[in-house]
């Protein structure tokens, strides 16, 4: 089905190859899992296999790549390849452009199916598969990151192509949604689809993947069955509500920094927050947990003025977040978005950080830039175009942009998305250092391991409400 021989690629302004001597054969009906550390070349491999590099990106490509015994370069652009190959990018926002979820799924079907009835039947079936039937009329911009990701996957499944390429499909999904997606992929494999998946969350694919490719520095470092590559079961994390190390929360000090009282927020007919009341204290490291659409991101966006309450109150230090100017709120609260690409717009890493520093009038911006880049492991990247960084590197750059502003409260929405375990831990160690230096850390996450190992306090949300507030004894004992 797909054959690559000695394939190497360097981006148009890249200084080193992103792919190096890739030789690979993927059979029809095979499910291949691609993993490896951040910046290993996984996403670039997806771009190559889907034809995007050959027909859209430019750069320097050598070696041979064929699909269905025909060189990929011989196809009449990505449009022709899209008849056979669907790709879900790691940035769901980049794929969602219509005014409702239904329109997103219908857009690609109108030239493929003969009747509106067929289109509606396909949309209904795929929505049920991905658990998004209740989102049919919702505008994509109102969805949580995990809901957007499921919509992007559904849009690809609706095309019913022979090959499906998924880049980090579960990175923003909770455990329940991840299980549903993997179950769907298993059924598609039974139907004969060829599936290529890039993911850091591996254990769910143990009985699904035919083969695992481990990439490093643009090369395929190892290749084999799941059991050959990962012989040890990674083990399940403790269930939140049965964890003996989580006890009812007690304040650590008498210095509240955020007071939220009976906060309500609606998106049209959807009650996103329904009477949330919680007080956060200075110097805490808080993990905010809950399934996709539970209200986590909606809640934290009220702390810097991106959202204003429909009713109830939010006080950030002495500021009323319902009416305070955003410029005043962001001096106190820095938010790193779930999708780093929504924060990045400049032509270089240096310019990204300089933008924020210009707003606060930094006395020595170059010194600050070097300091924050060193903190997030991106030293020397000042001249690099941000879009040429890997997803994990872009995530760290977004954190650096916030760190440069030196807010007292730092909010991270899914900060380990796209990062391997080693880099996730390095990011959390950075957050702990900032906590020790007096910052309050609020982290929205689906990663129970990260929450249990690093957060002092774990707040659980469901259907727009706080349903649990715990002191994490495991972190206290560490």
Provide the residue-averaged pLDDT.
88
Strand order of the largest sheet: 11-21-20-14-19-18-17
CATH-defined topology of the largest domain: Rossmann fold
Tell me which CATH architecture of the largest domain applies here: 3-Layer(aba) Sandwich
What do these coordinates show?
The protein is an alpha/beta fold and 478 residues long. It folds into 2 domains: 2-229, 3-Layer(aba) Sandwich (Rossmann fold); 240-477, P-loop containing nucleotide triphosphate hydrolases (Rossmann fold), CATH 3.40.50.300. 32% of the residues lie in helices and 26% in strands. The chain has 16 helices and 21 strands. It has helices spanning 42-49, 52-57, 77-81, 101-107, 116-130, 145-158, 175-190, 226-229, 296-301, 326-332, 349-360, 365-375, 391-405, 421-436, 448-454, 473-477, and strands at residues 2-10, 19-26, 31-35, 60-67, 70-71, 85-88, 163-167, 194-198, 211-216, 219-224, 246-248, 256-267, 270-281, 285-289, 311-316, 319-320, 333-336, 409-413, 440-444, 457-462, 465-472. A 7-stranded mixed beta sheet has the order 11-21-20-14-19-18-17. Strands 6-7-8-3-9-10 form a 6-stranded mixed beta sheet, with helices on both faces. A hairpin with a 2-residue loop joins strand 4 and strand 5 (70-71). Helix 4 (101-107) packs parallel to helix 6 and helix 5 packs across helix 6. The longest helix is centred in the middle third of the chain and has 16 residues, at 175-190. The chain starts with a strand and ends with a helix. The relative contact order is 0.12. Mean pLDDT is 88; it is low at 233-241.
């Amino acid at each position: 089905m797909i054959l690559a021989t000695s394939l190497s690629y360097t981006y148009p302004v890249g200084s080193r190859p992103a792919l190096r001597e890739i030789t690979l054969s993927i059979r029809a009906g095979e499910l291949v899992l691609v993993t490896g550390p951040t910046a290993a070349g996984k996403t670039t491999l997806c771009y190559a296999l889907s034809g995007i590099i050959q027909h859209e990106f430019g750069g320097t490509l050598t070696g041979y790549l064929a699909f269905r015994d025909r060189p990929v370069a011989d196809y009449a652009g990505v449009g022709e390849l899209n008849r056979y190959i669907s790709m879900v990018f790691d940035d769901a926002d980049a794929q969602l452009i219509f005014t409702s979820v239904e329109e997103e799924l219908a857009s690609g079907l109108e030239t493929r199916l003969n009747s509106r009835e067929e289109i509606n039947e396909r949309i209904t079936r795929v929505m049920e598969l991905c658990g998004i039937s209740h989102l049919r009329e919702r505008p994509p911009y109102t969805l949580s990151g995990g809901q957007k990701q499921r919509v992007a996957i559904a849009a690809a499944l609706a095309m019913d192509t022979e090959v499906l390429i998924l880049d980090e499909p579960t990175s923003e999904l909770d455990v329940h949604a991840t299980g549903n997606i993997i179950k769907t992929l298993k059924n598609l494999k039974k139907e004969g689809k060829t599936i290529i998946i890039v993911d850091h969350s591996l254990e769910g694919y143990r009985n699904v993947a035919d083969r695992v490719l481990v990439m490093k520095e643009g090369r395929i470092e190892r290749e084999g069955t799941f059991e050959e590559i990962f012989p040890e079961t990674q083990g399940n994390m403790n269930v939140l509500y049965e964890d003996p190390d989580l006890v009812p929360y007690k304040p650590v000090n008498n210095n509240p920094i955020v007071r939220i009282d009976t906060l309500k927020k609606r998106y049209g007919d959807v009650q996103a927050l329904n009477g949330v009341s919680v007080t956060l204290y200075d110097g805490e490291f808080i993990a905010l947990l809950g399934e996709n659409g539970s209200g986590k991101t909606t809640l934290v966006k009220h702390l810097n003025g991106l959202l204003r309450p429909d009713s109830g109150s939010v006080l950030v230090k002495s500021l009323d977040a319902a009416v305070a100017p955003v410029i005043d709120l962001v001096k106190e609260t820095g938010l790193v978005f779930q999708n780093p690409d929504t924060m990045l717009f400049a032509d270089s890493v240096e310019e990204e950080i300089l933008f924020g520093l210009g707003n606060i009038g930094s006395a020595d911006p170059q010194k600050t830039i070097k300091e924050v880049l060193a903190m997030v492991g991106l030293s020397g990247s000042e001249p690099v175009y941000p879009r040429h960084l890997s997803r994990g590197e872009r995530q760290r750059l977004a954190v650096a942009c916030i760190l440069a502003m030196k807010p007292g409260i730092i909010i991270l929405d899914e900060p380990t998305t796209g990062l391997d375990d080693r880099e996730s831990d390095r990011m959390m160690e950075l957050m702990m250092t900032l906590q020790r230096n007096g910052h309050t850390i609020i982290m929205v996450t689906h990663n129970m391991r990260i929450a249990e190992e690093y957060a002092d306090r774990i707040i659980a949300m469901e259907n727009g409400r706080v349903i649990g507030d715990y002191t994490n004894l495991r972190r206290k004992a560490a």
